[in-house]
Structures are given as C-alpha cells and as structure tokens.
Amino acid sequence: MPDVINAKCAGCGKVIRVSAKLGGRNAKCPGCGHVITIPTPADSTMDIVSDENLPAVAMEEEILDGEILPEPAALRRATSRRARETGTRRGTSVRKRNTAVLVGCAAGAAALVAIVLVFALHGRTPAEPRPNAPPKSEWKPDPEADALQARAREYLSAFRSGRHVEILDFFEEKDRSAMKASVTAQLEAGLRYDDVVFRSAKAGGDEGTVDFFCTLVRGSAREENRLVTLKWRRSGGAWRLTELPGK
C-alpha cells in the first residue's frame, strides 16, 4: 500500500498529494478551497467527486495542507482547448446579442419617426391666405351663356360650309336681304375663321355676346390671334346675329 496518494480537485483541476491514511475522507483544496473526497489506495481510477455527490456531512473544518503538483501536459492542453472553445462561444454569443440589440434599436427608431410624422401631418394647420391675395373665383354654371356659345359654334360651322341660306338664317328675317351681299363678298374673298378658341359668352335678358380668338384668313392674308366678337339678340325664341362679323 502506498504511503502517499494523489487527489484531483474538481474545482480548479489541481492535483494534490496527501497521506494514504486519509483515503475516503473529505478535505478542502489548498488552492481554491473546494471540498474534495480523498480517494482510497485501492481506488486506482482517481474519480473526481463533484459537489452534488459529496456526503451530506462533509468534514469542511479539517483543512489538509498538501503539496500542489504541476498539471500534466495533456491536462493543460485540454484546459486550454476548453478555454478557447468557451471564449469562441462567448464571443459569438456576444456578437449575436449585439446584432439583435442594433436591429431592435433601428426598428424602434423607425417606428418612433413614423409616429412623429403621423402626428405632425395630422396636426398641421392649413396655410392661411395672404391678406392681399385675390379671392378665388367661383365658377357658376350659366345655361343661357352655354346655349349662346353653342349657337356661335353653329354659325361658324355654317360659315365654313359656304352655304348662303344656312348663314343668313342666323340673322333676323328683315335683315337678311341687306346681309346677303356682304356674306357673298366674304365668301368670295375666302374669309375663314381658323384655330378658334372661345374666350367668353355672356347672356343677359334678350342680348348677349360671344368672344373668341382665331386666325382670320382672307385669301392669302392671315391675321393670327384676332379677337372676334359676335353680338346677338333674342328674337322669335332664337338667338340672332345683329351684325356681320369679320368686317
């Protein structure tokens, strides 16, 4: 039976040398203070007893001063490898946590900005008009003016057709004989109203006017942006021209 046996601390991994007479008893590691069970000489495996496998009553008050032996090379390599693996796992875990924190912060900031924009847009008051700004024009439908402008379109269409009867029908019957010669002269001169753009139509009572811009053509002569006014009078339930335009 050997006089000295080795006991390995499960806390710090150190191996201490103690008397064989202490086999089977509990003692504190002089290196870290961890309670270990001293193996018996017959125990050749040198199993390390963990904290949960210690007896219910451990002799913690009995401290043994043993000689701390150097770690075997294989144990140092295993310990170093475990430390590296632990450090690698810890570094990976820290990086993952940092990434998750950054993503969470970015999402929270985006949500906060969206909330601020929603409140800002809903809380914005409409800009007040300038004191000197002109009032906005309010368009109101005028059936009489619309009917008068439609009548003017019919006259221009009849004039482009070049048929005397249709053109003279836009004048009162008592004026048609006097207007016939003037209408004939305009048609023979090649008078045309091209590129017509209506400007306004006004009807009040039995009188009204229609203004439009056009390119007035007489033979080879062209007058662009010419303003032409058609003057009308209501007679016999229809709008009639009071004078021949384009003179």
Write the layout of secondary structure elements.
Layout: E1 4-8, E2 15-19, E3 26-28, E4 35-37, E5 67-69, H1 73-123, H2 143-161, H3 164-168, H4 176-188, E6 191-204, E7 207-218, E8 221-235, E9 238-241
Antiparallel strand pairs: 1-2, 2-5, 3-4, 6-7, 7-8, 8-9
Verbal overview:
With 247 residues, this protein is α+β, with helices and mostly antiparallel strands. Among the domains are: 71 residues, no CATH class; 99 residues, Nuclear Transport Factor 2, Chain: A (Roll), CATH 3.10.450. It is built from four helices and nine strands, in the order E-E-E-E-E-H-H-H-H-E-E-E-E. It has a four-stranded antiparallel sheet, covered by helices on one side. It has a three-stranded antiparallel sheet with strand order 1-2-5, with no helix packed on it. Strand 8 and strand 9 form a beta hairpin. The longest helix has 51 residues. The N and C termini lie far apart (146 Å).
Based on secondary structure, the structural category is alpha+beta
| Largest sheet features | 4 strands, antiparallel
Question: Which CATH-level-2 architecture of the domain at 143-241?
Answer: Roll
Oligomer: single chain
State the CATH topology of the domain at 143-241. Answer: Nuclear Transport Factor 2, Chain: A
What is the typical, i.e. mean, pLDDT? 76
Number of strands: 9
Helix content: 25-40%
Strand proportion: 25-35%
